[in-house]
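With this grant's support, we have settled on a layout for protein records. A representative record follows, to show the layout.
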Amino acid sequence: MPRALSLVLLAVLAGAALTGCKIPDEVAATQPSGTAAAPPISPAEARSQLAALPIAVRGTMDGYGREQFPHWDKVDANCDVREQVLKRDGKDVKAGADCAPKSGTWVSPYDGETWHKATDVDIDHVVPLGQAWVSGAKKWTRERREQFANDLIRPQLKAVTDNLNEQKGDKAPDQWKPPLVSYWCAYASDWIVVKSNYGLTITVPERTALASMLDHC
């Protein structure tokens, strides 16, 4: 991508992230890898975005595979998105020349547990890939699904306790919630922001669960 176009796209994306506007498909599909996360939204804004999310029956997993969402993309010559999240979410992270973390401390927001080895944490997609598939991503281009799976701007990627990530799988909030109740507000807000930005649908039980979680804000 020409440098001038990249700079224009970065400006558009940064403005959209800060204002909460949805990124157009034609821009999102070509989003360069970035690392500047948008600031969290207020509970009031989360409720407003939740009310605006389209309601639909959850689709099927027919045709789904993780390969439909290519990840992890390179952020620079050495680091990929997974390694970038490990560095971002950890403390005192030391990495080798290949960017793989050798040591550090990670506190999982889902359960508050502290880990000292990168192998003890997974990078969770807040809105799981399979959940995105059944709520609209099945119709996306492969490029847009790749952007979704590697998004460092929206609150979509978190370093969390590995077995919790496995427990969660592709479940929506009406099927799974983080065990740390004090994190429910943030989790629901993040879920809403991601679905809102990508134009994904929610079910009635999902909306009810999210509204209940926002009561903990």
Residues 51 and 151 are 24 Å apart (CA to CA). The longest strand covers residues 101-107.
